[in-house]
Amino acid sequence: MPGKTPDKEPVENGGYRGGNDMKDKPKPKSKKNAKEGEDEMTVVVPPSKKQNSAPPPDVEDGDVAMDVDNADDGEAKVDPVVQTLSDVKSNFALLDRAVVLFDARFTLRALRSISSIRKRLTPDILAQAISEAYPASTPSDALPRQFLSALGRPDVQLGRQPGPEMEIDSEPKAGKNGAKKEVKDIIPEIDVFFGILTQVLFHDNKMWQQGLEFSRFLVDRIQSFNRRTLDSLSAKVYFYYSLFAEQLAPLPPSPQSPIVSIRPVLLAALRTAVLRKDVDTQASVIVLLLRNYLLTSHISQADLLVQHSQFPENAANNQVARYLYYLGRTRAIQLRYTEAHEHLTAATRKAPSSACALGFSQTATKLLLVVELLMGDIPDRATFRQPTFEAALHPYFLLVQAVRVGNLEDFETIIAEHVDTFRRDGTYTLILRLRQNVIKTGIRMMSLSYSRISLRDICIRLHLGSEESAEYIVAKAIRDGVIEATLDRERGFMKSKEIGDVYATREPGEAFHDRINACLALHDESVKAMRFPMNQHRLELKSAQEAREREREMAKEIQDGDLDEDDLGGEFEGM
């Protein structure tokens, strides 16, 4: 009956109202509310699972909760093999877009994904990815067959093997005329990408000989193409090619090292890259050649390479940092410390700030500290307090303390204790040159402390062998401008001159000028590094031309009388 309150009926139909509601005093309801209650009673019956507060009597609470948890766990778990295959295949679309749009940024995105893929990559996963990427009709002497042979999986069949759940999707679809669609050809960029993954796999497994042989085959394959979309991939191939050669015995600096045998290949690649204006390969190969020459101590050849080649201005920032580091090392060995300091300072500034590039930053900073000491400067103490550099630069911190004080005995003791570290860092030969700088620093400290000091006292304080050697060192320091003093050979003492005001000289202005030049150079490089959309200026010209044509048409219609100013809605007043 619509006039009665349906309080009891919904309770009997599945507990729509709770027990607490039954205890409350019922409020008088209108006929409209009673009618809505009947509608709700009709919807509730039969009660849904979400509305029922109590489970069915034949199902236990624990069983229901267990089934739900298992279902959630099954959905959350992802097979790492399937995930790795999916990550590898996702790069194919990027490479296709790089070829279609002629944009190298998509290729760089594919290369950056290798760092995450290589942690889960195995020969079986890579062989499966190759087999699914290439059709079964591939010839036996084709590139994917050779990839599988290099991986030690020659028995893997090419073509995606259909599973029971993919029987329908695996069949090639037919067109409107009933003919089957042709299988899409694999572009060379995907071939080279698989080759780079194979090189990475060999490198991570320390298979140096297999990696060098495979890299030679891949380099020959790349040289047969002339595609600008392969530039970034080719640079990565040459990088691993040189890396494999460095790891094989006899190790450098032996003249029989395999790195000597790959120089003709790298020089030929450099000539080809310059002719084709391949910026990525050109920058990468120049850096590899400089590293190659420095590993075998061929400093003159490295200098000739720098003189007769031009490093591309629009190269990647990482390659520029490496080039500046090797150039600074070359100049430091050639005793050109000012140029070496400029190059190494720029290399440390351009070094990536990510954790994976921390080793490069530490190596460049170590060499920069030694060059500053050779120039007669004392490095800033804040450099050694950085958390990422504190442990690595501790031997150099002790070295700087000995040079700053001018204590020759402590200097020789520190070298003897940390000789292995200095040899591993490649700075041992440069540090040995610091002996004269320690002596000059000691003499300069004495010239600042004493107005006149005997050569015998200098010999005792610096732990020199005789007074004649002290006299020679003091005379050389005066000639080089290290100290402002005079030497009295007859009486056997050194007399210091009064020190003038340094701000009255040109030194502060020159230092300020150098800082301004560094800031301006950084600004110019930042402007050059900015990216703009391709052909954006053409789109702006086209839109402007269309706007002018519309204005001409509107003006013509006004002149003809077809359109007046009222029809324009007030927007044509400016014309």
TrEMBL record:
Keyword Cell division: no
Keyword Transferase: no
Keywords assigned by UniProt, alphabetized: Proteasome
Positions of the UniProt region annotated as Disordered: 1-67, 161-180, 544-575
Superkingdom of origin: Eukaryota
Segments forming a coiled coil: none
Molecular function GO terms recorded: enzyme regulator activity
PROSITE patterns: PCI
Residues covered by the PCI domain: 321-501
Cellular component terms (Gene Ontology): proteasome regulatory particle, lid subcomplex
Acidic residues composition bias: residue spans: 58-67, 560-575
Biased composition, class Basic and acidic residues, residue ranges: 1-11, 170-180, 544-559
One GO process term, biological-process aspect: regulation of protein catabolic process
Similarity comment: family membership: Belongs to the proteasome subunit S3 family.
Protein's UniProt name: Proteasome regulatory subunit C-terminal-domain-containing protein
